[in-house]
Amino acid sequence: MAKGKDKGFQMAAHGFFICILICILIPFMILFSSSITQEEALVRQGYGILPTKVDFTAYKLLLVDSTSILRGYGISVIVTVTGTAVNLLLTVLYAYPLSRKDLPGREFFSFFLFFTMLFHGGIVSSYIMWTQTFHIKNTLWALIVPNLLMQGFYVIMARTYFTANIPTALIDASRIDGAGEVKILAQIVLPMSLPILTALGLMVGLSYWNDWLNGIYYVNEDKYYSIQVLLNRMLLNTETMKKAAKSGLAGGRVPSVSMKMAVAVLGALPVLVIYPFLQKYFVKGITVGAVKG
Q: pTM of the entire structure?
């Protein structure tokens, strides 16, 4: 009887999660279908899971300048990898000392962290600081440093993980054996923290990949456009749309609706390919780092 109940529960659970999976996949299917549907059919018949009249005009328009697209992907990869690595480094260097109860001034540094989460200087003051004091406008650092370089929430997650999963006795034993703080962090703490580091790395990487605001604020040279900034400007730049229409690719009409969908597909495609391989580390890091503590 018990086995029958367990089997029934497993079937119900599988059915429930299959329904959740379908609910997650349907929006992506509609998104891609809409991006390859003829504009007139899309406006007349609405969105659907399968395209009624297949038309790749939106992608042809976006890929007219394939060199810019490839450069945008390259900039996004550089910014995402560099920004994620530096973010994790700063997060660990801030979170690990906070996890140590013997840190002098621990309360002050904790308060400073929480203060930055509650108050912000604003866009205008931030823009003046980054452009006139640090002079990062029209550089790759403009896509890396502002807003995303370190965030208090990620520091708290890492600190919670360190506190809950790095035994104090192990650190004390290492110190007795002659290990310094740098060696303890590099050879003991970091290898034991791969789940939370992977989870944080994935979240930070997604933030960098999807970021376009920094590009709008601090970059106005084409060679520094990330893929998100480039696609956003291509979509909003009416002059580009008029030139594309005159080229005959759209038959004199720009498919604005399907182009929006195509922009979303091109921007999200690399993440959709990579994310399934990192999902298990993401779930494990979130569970252990944020719940167990």
A: 0.78
- 82 vs 43, residue with greater confidence: 82
Q: Write a three-state SS string for the chain.
A: CHHHHHHHHHHHHHHHHHHHHHHHHHHHHHHHHHHCECHHHHHHHCCCCCCCCECCHHHHHHCCCHHHHHHHHHHHHHHHHHHHHHHHHHHHHHHHHHHCCCCCCHHHHHHHHHHHHHCCCCHHHHHHHHHHHCCCCCCCHHHHCCCCCCCHHHHHHHHHHHHHHCCHHHHHHHHHCCCCHHHHHHHHHCHHHHHHHHHHHHHHHHHHHHCCHHHHHHCCCHHHCCHHHHHHHHHHCHHHHHHHHHCCCCCCCCCHHHHHHHHHHHHHHHHHHHHHHHHHHHHHHHHHHHHHC
Q: Is the pLDDT of residue 153 over 50?
A: yes
Using the structure block, give the residue that is written with the tokens 């993401």: 282
d(CA 198, CA 186): 16
pLDDT of residue 244: 55
Q: Residues 224, 213: contact at Cβ < 8 Å? A: no
**pLDDT given at position 293:** 42
User: Residue 75 forms beta bridges with which residues?
Assistant: none
pLDDT at 47: 80
With a cut of 60, say whether residue 238 has pLDDT above it. no
Q: What's the angle, vertex CA 74, arms to CA 281 and CA 238, rounded to 5?
A: 115
User: Is residue 17 predicted with pLDDT exceeding 70?
Assistant: yes
